[in-house]
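Model it.
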Amino acid sequence: MEQSKIAMVVFDMAGTTVNEDNLVYKTLRNAINAAGFDFSLDQVLAQGAGKEKRQAIRSVLSTYGGISDEVLTSKIYDEFIVALREAYATEEILPQPNATAVFSALKDRNILTVLNTGYDRATASSIIEKLGWKEGVEFDALVTASDVPGNRPEPDMIEYAMTQFHIIDRKTVVKVGDSTIDIEEGQNAGCRFSIGITTGAHTAAQLQTANPDQIINNLIELLPIID
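Modeled.
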């Protein structure tokens, strides 16, 4: 039986299509540690990468501190969001190598490009604006953690994007991300391929623990897989 043509690729943002040198997780680590902890960047990446950021804080606190405290989580989150907006306003943010070339190549193939992220919409929109990307030009839609009830690894963001473009067949969708939770999200959504990329939060060995269909080292490697 011939498989359906790929209709949509859903890309994570930070670490996958956006190169911000782990700025978000460095800022997250600083916000958590300002509350009296001393966690390393590796610890924050291991537990927080790809997650909705409030959930990332919960995971770090519970895994390494044995702490479950919603008041503390909210306080850290609020300070993190302020610090992150300041960081994004001042730090350099670039597209990952070949990101815009791949978006353009997908457009030539009549394949939709969707960005999804564990950020809230305001934060994600400010990053996209700083990159100079526009919805309908470089990419077709943005779906954020604040748009859906269930965050990664739940499939809600991918399903929301499918609904927006009237896509019914899950096997026409591909997910690409730099963390294990991205891969799990794609698997839970029933995507044709859930692909890990080594340009962000997790190493190839860490990505492999989620059993991705492929691991790539550069976005350009996606095109032969899709073709």
